[in-house]
């Protein structure tokens, strides 16, 4: 495409199949979910899965897509559209920054504020969202993927951090918790399904209004969860990866 990229949205995770449904792969899960939502919103054939390309040279699975901007009622805003790169780094989580740096250079995106990173967050309750922009390293301390991105491009990128909460027992090590699968127990999967929808709405609002403070106020740390949660029987959202 000849037009410039408006945003890169990177979901963090580990690429190995055994981690597909784990809490630490919340970012990966969201990117697959978002790709499916965007495909449906664009009116594309539901039989066609969203296509990602495995770019070994970029160390990432990448989807380059354009979608029309709509307002809160779903009405198109003039002829405006947004070019977005959806990506999932293929490095280990702790080396996510290298892939993101490669993708930013490849698509000539120099403004880190146009990079949105989606990752899991132990310190945010399940079903709730933390949104951050700028700040210092302390705001990302403890998440090795985010720390590695900071080491490559600094702290000015936008973070959407998906709450996975902490272990319900002191006997469960943090590593075991984050690398464990989302569970039906305590409606954990249902809460995460709600969070996927909430994060998508927040990104849409950010795309329309370009106002991170507004989005944080409206969507981050929502104290009241819905009385009724949609039942989630799976957090696997199929995509078609070319070049595997």
Overall description:
There is one protein chain. The chain is α/β, with parallel strands linked by helices and 244 residues long. The chain has a single domain, classed as Rossmann fold, CATH 3.40.50. Helices cover 30% and strands 23% of the residues. The protein has 6 helices and 8 strands, in the order E-H-E-E-E-H-E-E-H-E-H-H-H-E. The longest helix has 22 residues. It is globular and about 50 Å long. The mean pLDDT is 91. GO terms for molecular function: peptidyl-tRNA hydrolase activity; tRNA binding. It is an enzyme of class 3 (hydrolase). Keywords: Hydrolase, RNA-binding, tRNA-binding.
**Strand order within the widest sheet?**
6-7-5-1-4-3-2-8
Which fold name fills CATH's third level, the topology?
Rossmann fold
Provide the helix percentage.
25-40%
Given as residue ranges, the uncertain stretches (5+ residues, pLDDT < 50) are: none
Sketch the major β-sheet: 8 strands, mixed
Mean pLDDT: 91
What is the helix tally? Answer: 6
Q: What is the architecture at the second tier of CATH? A: 3-Layer(aba) Sandwich
Q: What separation lies between the terminal Cα atoms?
A: 23 Å
**Tally of discrete structural domains:** 1
Q: Could you spell the SSE succession in H and E letters? A: EHEEEHEEHEHHHE
Strand content: 15-25%
- Alpha carbon gyration radius: 17 Å
Structure summary, number of beta strands? 8
Anisotropy-based shape: globular
CATH first level:
Alpha Beta
The CATH superfamily is known as: Peptidyl-tRNA hydrolase
Based on helices, strands and strand pairing, what is the structural class?
alpha/beta
């Amino acid at each position: 495409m000849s037009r410039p990229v408006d945003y890169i949205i990177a979901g963090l995770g580990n690429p190995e199949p055994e981690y597909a449904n784990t809490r630490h792969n919340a970012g990966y899960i969201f990117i697959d979910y978002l790709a499916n939502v965007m495909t449906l919103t664009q009116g594309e054939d539901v039989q066609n899965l969203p296509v990602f390309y495995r770019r070994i040279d970029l160390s990432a699975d990448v989807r380059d897509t354009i979608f029309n901007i709509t307002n809160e009622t779903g009405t198109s805003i003039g002829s405006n559209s947004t070019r977005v790169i959806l990506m999932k780094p293929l490095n280990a989580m702790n080396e996510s920054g290298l892939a993101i740096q490669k993708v930013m250079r490849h698509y000539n995106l120099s403004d880190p504020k146009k990079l949105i990173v989606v990752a899991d967050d132990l310190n945010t309750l399940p079903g709730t969202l933390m949104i951050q922009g700028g700040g210092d390293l302390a705001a990302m301390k403890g998440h090795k993927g985010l720390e590695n991105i900071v080491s490559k491009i600094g702290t000015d990128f936008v973070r959407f951090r998906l709450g996975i909460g902490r272990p319900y027992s002191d006997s469960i090590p943090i590593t075991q918790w984050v690398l464990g699968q989302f569970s039906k127990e305590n409606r954990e999967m249902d809460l995460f399904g709600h969070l996927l929808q909430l994060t998508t709405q927040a990104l849409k609002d950010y795309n329309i209004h370009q106002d991170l403070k507004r989005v944080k106020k409206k969507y981050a740390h929502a104290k009241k969860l819905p009385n009724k949660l949609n039942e989630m029987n799976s957090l696997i959202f199929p995509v078609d990866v070319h070049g595997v």
